[in-house]
Amino acid sequence: MSEEVKKGLMGIVVDETTISQVMPEINSLTYRGYKVQDLCEKCSFEEVAYLVLNGELPKSKELKKFITEERKNRGLSKQILSDIKNMPKKAHPMDVVRTAVSLMGLEDKDTKNNSPKANMKKAMRIFAQTPTAVAAYFRARKGKKFIQPNKKLSYSENFFNMMFGKVPNKEIVKAFDVSMILYAEHSFNVSTFTARTITSSLSDIHGAITGAIASLKGPLHGGANEAVMYMFKQIKKPEKAEKWINNALDKKKVVMGFGHRVYRSGDSRVPTMKKYFLRVAELKKNTAYPKMYKILEKIMLQRKNIHPNVDYPCGPTYHLMGIDTDFFTPIFVMARITGWSAHIIEQHAANKLIRPLSKYKGSEHREVLSLNIR
Ligand code: COA
Predict the structure, then answer these.
(1) What pLDDT was estimated at residue 264?
(2) 259 Cα–ligand 1 center, Å
(3) Any bridge partners for residue 357, and if so which?
(4) Is the CB of 260 inside a 6 Å radius of any atom of ligand 1?
(5) What is the structure's pLDDT at 25?
(6) Are 295 and 175 in contact (CB under 8 A)?
């Protein structure tokens, strides 16, 4: 057996999938065969969530049923709402949402049932309830009263309403919907692989998603959208951007929102998200962030030939929507629940325990000496 170590599983194909395809050679990404850019322009997030979970775009009746189910399941139990309210105000919202999904598993009547049908039902409940948990903590932390989900509103409209008590204009909602579509799925990234690894021991979907959330929190993965915003805040003004980035690169710092393990010549999701970011900035009459965005992007390309990833335009877009920076990654969670769930169901359908090998480089065999002569 080969003893070659493939650090970070780089370049290793570990399984097959029918959910999405990342094609770095042509900077493209498809969900179930559809180009993600087309899905962004022609579909709502609900349609794409259905596609990711079920494999096909919904027909009108199917979409209606899916939307009804999602709206019906948005409510959280009094117990979970009270738990969220009592969570430490200084906790990271990712830790709160991770705990909330874990709590949902304690209450779910199908927790022990891993059949595809039960998993789909549980996926729908986690999908529908997570935005409610995120918004509940967003308000609780500010000492504000919880706003109940509203069945008359779409997924994104309802999220804004639960966060701020109002729905912004259609273009802002569309930009948010697009970010959700772009965040929904991305093949075997670290959190999805975590979810599949947990599933491979025949564990349950709440546990797999809880583990995936912990994985997504890291700044090399989902946490990058927050880190981008902290960077923008640190730079403060576009006039300072060039000096800041040159200094960071001179010091060999990793610049958040740039680079990707798979895409080496540009992230397929960036042009679409950048377009919506620029429109949101225009609507909010913000000129500083687009200027800063372009300066950092240009210098990263010139000096390192490294392109932005989707977190780069998402960070400032969410900020301009009025969302607190540490809530950016929980929003990524809300979208990625669709992709994770599809992967969990796919893993169950053709399961093989995931158990790689390691190359041992510790001490030689040795004897345990008695305490007085060690
Ligand atoms: N800023 C500065 N340099 C970067 C960089 C970044 N964001 N991303 C990669 N590089 C450099 C590395 O330092 C390395 O340089 P070296 O060869 O001189 O040591 C080179 O580019 C190759 O990068 P590598 O670390 O091998 O790529 P990877 O596949 O292991 O890492 C990421 C991919 C995503 C982890 C990495 O690009 C990164 O940390 N990006 C910032 C975090 C981020 O935005 N994550 C979200 C991903 S969607």
Answers:
(1) 82
(2) 5
(3) none
(4) yes
(5) 86
(6) no
Pocket probe for ligand 1: among 6, 249, 258, 329, the residue whose CB has the most ligand atoms within 8 Å is 258
Buried b (16+ CB within 10 A) or exposed e, 144-169: eebbebeeebbbbbbbbbbbbeebbe
Q: Residue 280: how many CB atoms within 10 A of its CB?
A: 26
Q: Which residues of the chain have pLDDT under 70?
A: 1-2
Does residue 38 carry a catalytic annotation? no
How distant, in Å, are the alpha carbons of 165, 240, 268, 271 from that of 302? 44, 18, 20, 18
Whose CA is closest to atom 36 on ligand 1?
A: 259
Do 241 and 295 touch, CB atoms closer than 8 A?
yes
**Predicted pLDDT of residue 140:** 97
Domains, the chain, in order of start with CATH, read 15-218+326-349 (1.10.580.10), 224-320 (1.10.230.10)
Structure tokens belonging to residue 312? 């780069």
Amino acid identity, position 189: N
Q: Is 311 a catalytic residue?
A: yes
Euclidean distance between CA atoms 232 and 235, whole angstroms:
5
